[in-house]
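Cast an eye over my tokenised protein here and flag anything odd:

===
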Amino acid sequence: MSALAKEKKTQVIESHKSHAEALARIAELEKVFDDQRNQNKTLELLSQELGDDCKWLLTRSLPLLVDRLVGSEELAKYMFELGGAANNSGRKDDYAEGKAFVKEGTLDEKFELFKEDCAANYAAKLHEFGFLEFGILKAIEKLARRGVTVETLRKVLEGGDARIGGAGPSQ
């Protein structure tokens, strides 16, 4: 066999090796491409779920939360007490005004509202509103610290399982 034939044979062998290496690299890149495509599909699904969750949070959770707060025992109790304090304050002022016009000799101490500072009670109730705590908000904070999903929050607010997290009276 001549030197030229040996050189050609060596080139053919090296060419086959290069070809085999190229095919292996192509297969490796195709696998990476397939893995990346699958990961992209997963991310697209996750992105869609997150979008749906965000949409639900904005369109449904806030109205549901407001409904819970408006219908809560805490707010009802506060509003009842605020109304009572305002009513008593007004009644006391009306009584004092009427007393000035009608001097019937009734002692102030016999009138129950003269025993309390109605204006101060009313002011205290107005101040208390700034610190009013709602059980449903405490429950949501508790759930958030646990890292719950939007699905769990959805169940809590939509009534699926209102007792998750100890939602309290405003659940």
DSSP finds five helices and no strands in the chain. Residues 64 and 158 are 7 Å apart (CA to CA).
